Amino acid sequence: MSKRTDPDKFIVTKYVLYPGLLLALLVRCCVAAYPYSGRGAPPMFGDFEAQRHWQEVTVHTPARDWYRNTTHNDLQYWGLDYPPLSAYHSLLLGLVADWLEPESVRLFASRGYESETHETFMRWTVFLSDLYFYVTAVLCICIHMERVTSKSELSVFKRTDVSTVICLLYPGIILIDHGHFQYNCVSLGLFLWATFFIVAIENDIMATIFFVLALNYKQMELYHALPFFFYLLRKCFITVTNESSMAHLIYRFTKLAIAVIGTFSAVWYPLVHSWDDVLQILHRLFPIKRGVFEDKVSNVWCSANVFVKLKHVYNNEEMVRMCVMSTLVACMPSCLDLFFRINRKKFVLCLINVSLAFFLFSYQVHEKSILLVAIPVTIYLPDDPFTSLWFLLLSTFSMLPLLLKDGLLLPLLCTSSIYLSFYSIALHLSGLETNIFSVLSANTVYEAAKTKSYNHVVMKLFSTMFFFSLQGMILLGLGSLLVKPPPQYPDLFPLLISMYSCLHFIFFLIYFTYCQLQLPMCLPVQLKVKKN
């Protein structure tokens, strides 16, 4: 077989990569043609209006007033509640919008502005941000994954083309960013770049800088902070020689501290002139008064609230303390294992476990926050494609009430079908005899992935659980569409979906923690890449 046609050679990835990338970008464009959050729904509209309003505020008010309630900035109307880097992004886009269509960001007069030209502009800003930050990071991580995998261990899921397209076709982020309308692709793209510098380049300084940038774009990146902290801190203790161990430790820690402080200072300096400014921004970023969760989110507190009305038993301060303690308890097994038994493969699993613990137990959780768990799972999918697929489908399903409210049912069905179809194509490319139902067979998927080798009983159990889990999603989805809930329980199906999903997420937290604990300790060393 020639080099050009040998499927094990790195060069062949371009044959599936190019059409796959085009498909992923086309799907994004198609979803963008559907309604965005709050379209034609005054007086507050939705997330689209929030992003437009932040452009209006950042363009026409001084930077020091962006997070303050003034005569020109009413914080009750979509006040800025994301960190400074997000505000700078809004300013950049607002300046472009002011040049192209000044009416779209005119102070006060532009509230609820919904022209077709401005919608097109806003959709393009998400598309280009996605392409620049998220798509490039995914591609680099997937290229690295194949290049460090030996020829004998290279499965179809670790090929650059297949893994990249599977990551980019994940329905959740497409529906939220390009349908509902947000810029999660920026913070998650910066997070993936930080992860890339950890797992591929071993450049701790660059990883620190990119993660701090991600954290300064959306504060929800705190979901990923502990794995970065424990991993980078543990690496400080890996010394070159015993004679200079303490000096080496101090040197490494100081470099990381300078990177953190320097990046934070560069981002916050234009907005901060006193401690009062810092406290005001923090007050906007962490609004305790909003409550423990919003809408019907698939976490423990929302599920528990069905049986015990938490706000009648605990005040906000008590709930904050309870959330912090329970989140730390759920995180610590994974974090301590990463610290004492460090391994780069554990790092991605720790990201999954800690972010999932934050989603299940932390304070002020949104249903969209499940994306912070799902993106690390997409990175882990080549190592555990069956359970990862299950989780990614479930994470998208958990946002069904939000997607139905936005009128995104058809995009949800189409993107999920495309995702499953490409996944089936990947199984077929493995050389096994497969069909469209092979995705339901744990044995077939793991055989194609050349990874886990559970016994036959466990494989059968996983397949059965996945099958009935899908049936539950379908039944709850049909119920939401076709069955009118009793008048006294108008939120019956959103609550059932959140509780159903929460039970799954608890199972996945236990499962992924077990997977991490099973990995041995392996001190980070520079990996040798395979030669073409």
From TrEMBL:
Molecular function as annotated in GO: dolichyl pyrophosphate Man9GlcNAc2 alpha-1,3-glucosyltransferase activity
Annotated Gene Ontology cellular component terms: endoplasmic reticulum membrane
Pfam families cross-referenced by the UniProt entry: Alg6_Alg8
Pathway recorded for this protein: Protein modification; protein glycosylation
Membrane topology (UniProt): Multi-pass membrane protein
Key words of the record: Endoplasmic reticulum, Glycosyltransferase, Membrane, Transferase, Transmembrane, Transmembrane helix
Keyword Protein biosynthesis included in the entry's annotation: no
Transmembrane stretches, start-end: 12-36, 121-144, 156-176, 188-215, 253-271, 319-340, 347-366, 386-404, 409-429, 461-483, 495-514
EC identifiers of the protein: 2.4.1.-
Localization: Endoplasmic reticulum membrane
Principal location: endoplasmic reticulum
Family assignment from sequence similarity: Belongs to the ALG6/ALG8 glucosyltransferase family.
Protein name: Alpha-1,3-glucosyltransferase
Gene, per the UniProt record: jg26339
